[in-house]
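Data card: per-record layout.
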Amino acid sequence: MSQAATNLRVGSKVRVNLDSVKERIPGNLVELLKKDPRGTLVDFKMTDGMGIGVVLEFSDGSISWFFENEITN
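The structure for this 73-residue chain is written out next.
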């Protein structure tokens, strides 16, 4: 597990770096993140057999996952 993932726990409040993700996520999620880029970590996700992603829940109840390097705590 990487250093960034070991510092995060389920329930952590994190912020998505919009510049890192806006090219790969749907437009409605981009608009949501422009208004409020903060989310709550609800789970972890194996990304490619070596990396760890994080599953976030946002203020509107939507859930999406991100690579760990796309978020800050």
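Known properties of this structure: Residues 3-72 form a domain with the SH3 type barrels. fold (CATH 2.30.30). The radius of gyration is 11 Å.

See the next section for split statistics.
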